[in-house]
Amino acid sequence: MHAHISKINYFHTNYMEKDQHQFISMIYNIRNSYFLENGPYLINDNLIVYLNDEKKQVCVHNINSSTTGDGVYIDGRIYITRSSSICQLDLRTKNLIQLERLTSNSRCSSIAAMENFLLFIDKRDILWKMDVKTQEVEVLGFEQCYFIFTFLDKVLLECRINDEKVVILGQFKNGRITELNRLSGELGGKTYWSDNHGVSLLRPANQIIDMNTCALMQQNDKITRDHQFFHKVLGATYFPDFSEQLSKQFLKHITRQQRADEYIQSLNQPHEKKILFLQLDIEENSKEFHKVNYKFIHIYRQNCQKLQSNYQLQKTLLQMCVELFECKGIDCFE
Predict the structure, then answer these.
(1) Per the domain annotation, does 310 fall within a domain?
(2) From CA 85, how far away is CA 321, in angstroms rounded?
(3) Position 282 in a domain
(4) pLDDT at 137 > cutoff 70
(5) How does pLDDT run across 17-30, given as a tens digit for each residue?
(6) Distance of alpha carbon 74 from alpha carbon 234, whole angstroms
(7) DSSP-assigned beta bridge partners for residue 151
């Protein structure tokens, strides 16, 4: 498939604001962790942390060993990679265990989350999925995979096919990935070391990939992206110039997805997070109200039409009665 030009707004001004926190050293994200207590969460060496209001790192959990890439949150658990191992941290019990059946390819982005599935690239570079509810594991049909990123319902894979590196973009639905686009090249610079929530850099073209549209942006990227910046929703990103736009899309998606998450809903959410779930409920209830209201109005109009028809019928019958009475009166007179 040929690359299409993305329609996403391209802008790179005002991202070096005074209150924009820049990380000195590389840090990993825990994807989908915004609604966790004080989230989003980050991984700094062997510590799971969050940034407080003063942008100081506060430790949430010590995982005792350095990780090799981003972690992901699904259904009350955080999944992380340690070399070729995948571990699970239960946030209720704080127990950290190694998942014996699962392996990682040891690269910096080898796991991801979609719906109730953990996606992972094993040590043979094969892409798999595990249903976190049933623990069932199934291969997804992509081999020689190096990296995986996800955004909304989209998946990005860097693979090697016929001795050529390619970036595959697809949609994840009902446990399957449908390929939508394929780009020649590889993920470039430092930007693929951690998740950037919806954008990636393609080399050698030096163009930005918009994961939401599965397309390349028209302009070549002119920014040196060698440091991460903090965003209050997305966490650490090499693309702060896109954060505000991407965070709005991400929030809608994650709010809808985690509304049924029992662990998330058991937390005492601050007002700014609680209101997101409330707004979603109001929005959906409003749609139902409009459906009911429209149905009521439709029935009311039908009844009005029937009443109008009955009125016309009554008027016609009355007129006929008057005419008959007049005729009878004339006959009697004659």
Answers:
(1) yes
(2) 94
(3) yes
(4) yes
(5) 446 899 999 999 99
(6) 16
(7) 154
